[in-house]
């Protein structure tokens, strides 16, 4: 069984910064792609950023230049540094991780709330 636990969400003023962390634990210690998604009220979940095991990154246009995703493979942890936050960044942020067990599988965290006040 694999679990992802996010932390670092909270309330921040527009222009501020937050760093989200997501730690994986359980019987799997090798993850391929890891990423962050977000879901605002009344909207679909969307990709924020993803990172391969080798460190190749991909960002949504809405956060490009303001956010940095990174990971520590030894700790099975992925981070999302978000700067210059805007009210439209307000959402529940979910961590996602892929691993291979016979086939490709994915696991989700429980989510952490980010609220940006104007």
Tell me how many strands there are.
11
Q: How many angstroms separate the termini? A: 40 Å
The ordered string of helix (H) and strand (E) elements is EEEEEEEEEEE
Helix content: under 10%
Overall pLDDT = 96
Overall geometric form: globular
Strand content: over 45%
What count of helical segments does DSSP give? Answer: 0
Give the biggest sheet. 7 strands, mixed
Low-confidence stretches: none
Broad structural category: mainly beta
Structural write-up:
The chain is mainly β and 118 residues long. It has no helices and 11 strands. It has strands at residues 2-7, 10-13, 18-26, 34-39, 46-51, 57-59, 67-72, 77-82, 91-101, 103-108, 112-117. The strands form 2 sheets. Strands 2, 4, 5, 6, 9, 10 and 11 form a 7-stranded mixed β-sheet that branches. It starts with a strand and ends with a strand.
């Amino acid at each position: 069984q694999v679990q992802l636990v996010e932390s670092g969400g909270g309330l921040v003023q527009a222009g501020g910064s937050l760093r989200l962390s997501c730690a994986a634990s359980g019987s799997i210690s090798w993850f391929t792609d890891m990423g962050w998604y977000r879901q605002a009220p009344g909207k679909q979940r969307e990709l924020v950023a993803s990172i391969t095991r080798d460190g190749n990154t991909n960002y949504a246009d809405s956060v490009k230049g303001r956010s940095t995703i990174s990971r520590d493979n030894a700790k099975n942890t992925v981070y999302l540094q978000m700067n210059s936050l805007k009210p439209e960044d307000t959402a529940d942020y979910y961590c996602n991780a892929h691993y291979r067990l016979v086939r490709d599988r994915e696991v989700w965290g429980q989510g952490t709330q980010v609220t940006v006040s104007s």
